[in-house]
Design goal:
8 strands; globular; alpha/beta; binds flavin mononucleotide; 6-stranded parallel sheet; two-stranded antiparallel ribbon; Rossmann fold
Length: about 180
Amino acid sequence: MRFIYNIYKQFAALERQHLRKDVRRGMTKVVIMYDSKSGNTEAMAKSIAEGAKAVSGVEVVLRKLGEPFSLRILDDADALILGSPAHYGHVTLEMRDFLARLRGAQEAGRLELRGKIGAAFGSYGWDGGVCIERLGIDLENLGIKVQSPVLAQVPPLPYSALKEKSLNECRNLGETIATKALKQ
Ligand SMILES: Cc1cc2nc3c(=O)[nH]c(=O)nc-3n(C[C@H](O)[C@H](O)[C@H](O)COP(=O)(O)O)c2cc1C
């Protein structure tokens, strides 16, 4: 009985997704959600958004964790891109909490992320690249078809800033994801 109920919930979530796409008259939606404390990952998120927006027929939604927003904005998303800085060998607490909420909503049949396109991105100071790669695995475990992540190293000392090369990689990631989402 539980099995049939779960199938029904998944079907209902998919149905919602398709209906909303109809309402948007075929626009492809790329959602970028990120955490950032000192602005590096935020600059990356904005460059990804810039790259995705450059693809015609694509609308981009950019949200920072901590701002109020509904998970409903993911219902009709074709792509989900998540970004976080490395904090003590992990993505931030806020991002971990957010991932748990996505898992919970999907398990409860209130959200369907399976089959969407996605990617992870983020910045780190010294050894944190692996956290961002793990974020990609978390997305994969949610059933998302994940592209290669973009990682940017910004060593804290001496003062350094995000390099234009990293921001260009972000623009390319945005464009690649948007183009794939448009075709699927
Ligand atoms: C509390 C704290 C913990 C951090 N832990 C790590 C870490 O474990 N590994 C690492 O490579 N960088 C670490 N960093 C560096 C940040 O990941 C890096 O500065 C990043 O670019 C910050 O991104 P943001 O500007 O988007 O907040 C840490 C920074 C802070 C403030």
